[in-house]
Amino acid sequence: EDQVTQSPEALRLQEGESSSLNCSYTVSGLRGLFWYRQDPGKGPEFLFTLYSAGEEKEKERLKATLTKKESFLHITAPKPEDSATYLCAVQALSTDKLIFGTGTRLQVFP
Amino acid sequence: DAGVTQSPTHLIKTRGQQVTLRCSPKSGHDTVSWYQQALGQGPQFIFQYYEEEERQRGNFPDRFSGHQFPNYSSELNVNALLLGDSALYLCASTEGGYNEQFFGPGTRLTVL
Fold it and tell me: Is residue A57 within 8 Å of A74, Cβ to Cβ?
């Protein structure tokens, strides 16, 4: 069964304190792995798509990496406005649906 | 360029009632997917519409049904509402179904 597990569930960082979020997955043939950011009460905002092991993508303070079993979202020198829930999702070759993890709730305080 | 839009923003219904939620996809997108997100959980796939037909369905009962119109907009209908149907309902659009899915702001449904 295709599955996504994210850790930690919650993370508190001081402004400027870099860290990483983990997304472990099992899927019967990976089409793509997606990272989203979600603010409370709002829809997920697309961040990155990764397609193959070894691929990396960057956007401002965020960098996403992918291996055959997991993905990491690295946050460098975070700011309070980076506070949100970060969701990871996979899409298998045999389907169009996204399978999401439960997310990591990130809080960055000054 | 307008993104994905959904209406209404909030809804309150009682058990047993029926509800219709609406979604307009991002310009240029022809595929619409619906997701249910319970509090503290990740979104769960309900179904996807392409060319006005249901292309794929998740593990949801037949009480959940949908429709896609010629202009690619879509509706989600839920019959015989249960307390457990209370959630944020998200619509996502994409071009062709295999690319990035862009989400709308969601409709918050509360069933009393």
Answer: no
